[in-house]
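Record 1 of the preview.
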Amino acid sequence: MARRLLGAMAKKILSPPDEAAPIFDGFSKEMFKFLHGLKKNNNKEWFENHRDEYEHFLREPSKALANAMGVFFREHKMPIIGNAKTSLFRINRDIRFSKDKSPYKTHIGLSFSLDGSKKEEWCGYYIGFEPVKTGKGMSVFAGGGVYMPMPPHLKRIRAKIDRDYKTLSKAIGAKSFSTIYPKGLTGESLKRIPAGYPEDHPAAELLKMKSFLFGVDLSEDNLLSEDLPDVLGKAFLAGLPVVQFFGSL
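->
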């Protein structure tokens, strides 16, 4: 899920500030039911027959959550963008180059960009959820970082790690970060250290990485709760030094 969401985020462009939206009071079991139904009936006819459910149980609460996160970021002086215009993903899939011609996404995501992030150098946070493979529940994941940066961007990230790896190591080693994200930074890596860096570099494992991600599984109860913005906000606060490291090259 993390790869799908971050891959899509890298294509997003920042837009103007928040629009008014309803107060977020949690998603609902009806939203679970809608996404499970869409998973079983991923076609335009079914979606159009259930568009009201999509709008009422998924899109409107998602807009409210995005704006609630924007409020949290401002209150905690976090340089992160959250609003209904920039944070929501389209539910329509881009099927032009895909063998899977299902027209709609069943993995739903919201993203929150570091203020000033360029389209081609996105970094920030996200929350994603999708129907579980068996049963009626939802799989929920939140996290952040940088997903598969393009070569010029990756080169600059590695250059910063080379000269300032102690700052990054301190950020991912902090108790506030490791408590919420015990797996630390994850992502695809090279088998050998990139050309130009010594094999015994003290940050060799970080330099090998091609994505720089962190994340945590959340519960269905989190999705259903009006406290979700605070749950996400506290988790995102813990990851802020890492996001800012990658966002200030």
